[in-house]
Design a protein that fits this description.
28% of the residues lie in helices and 26% in strands. α3 crosses α4. It starts with a strand and ends with a strand. The protein has 2 domains: 168 residues, Quinone Oxidoreductase, Chain A, domain 1, CATH 3.90.180.10; 136 residues, Medium-chain alcohol dehydrogenases, catalytic domain (Quinone Oxidoreductase, Chain A, domain 1, Alpha-Beta Complex). Strands 3, 4, 5, 8, 9, 16 and 17 form a 7-stranded mixed sheet that branches. The protein has a 6-stranded parallel sheet with strand order 12-11-10-13-14-15, with helices on both faces. Strands 1-2 form a two-stranded antiparallel ribbon. The chain is α/β, with parallel strands linked by helices.
Amino acid sequence: MKANVLTGINQPFIWQEVTTPQPLKGEVLIKIQAAALNHRDLWIQKGQYAGLRFPIIVGSDGSGIVTQVGEGVDETWIGKEVIINPGMNWGDEPAFQSRSFKVLGLPDDGTFAEYVKVPVENVDIKPSFLSWDEAAAIPLAGLTGYRALFTKGGCKAGSTVLISGVGGGVALITMQMALAAGAEVYVTSGDDSKIERSKELGAKEGVNYKINGWHKLLQSAVDGFDVIIDSAAGESAKNFIELARPGGRIVFYGGTQGPITTLNPQKLFWKQLSLLGSTIGTNEEFKAMLSLFETHTIHPVVDAVFKMEEAEQAVRKMEKGEQFGKILLRP
């Protein structure tokens, strides 16, 4: 088969012949129909990720057709159209992942290839209303957003929700799920056009976080937030304390802007706020997330589709941060 191979830090993706993986006990081999990019792939290329190894085929998200099964796997899986859950070995404790937890695409070879092998417990039937591209766009972003929004954030119908950095994969798909659940959603972005597109999809309002005192604009528009979902943290995270309603939940699933250096503890405890961390999710949450998509016929937003051999061009587009929705690779 052919695959996009990274040979070292800051090296380009090379489309080359590699050995086709063979499914072992409990595994299936999937012919990839579409794969989606995540910032994780860019960080691995730049050497900004733990546990690096080279050469590696990255890619956590994919949809495809099961073509072969390993020992102990029912052969009725062959020919099934599936979506891949990239989170493996979560463990028995729903509250946190096990030490053996890993994400497809490092350390194991991922979806930027013609074929990938994964444990059969990490595949689910692709919802029929989704295209291959849409199905591939969901897994990592959808699972991360679902756990942050519902399991940790406690979002429900009628909740007032703030989602920062909309336009990126997780933030945008989290917004779609919150809207489907009946929440009133507000967003932030550094790009006014992304705010307008979010409003077209159902967001109530949005503000540009590059504006000095952006949080005050939100304070004048809404009487606080029940749930705040953020991936940046950093200095501006202190504003979430001001924006949260009493009893509110502030959930971080990333920290691209670095440590939170200033928080007002008096407001934190007087408002009875919860600061929560969230990472990816369990197999049960993955199934619940797919059920939400099916119940509400949610179509994830796809920004651009590249040929599979154009992974280097695709990741450079992601690096610019101009996309609204997911970037796809298609064989």
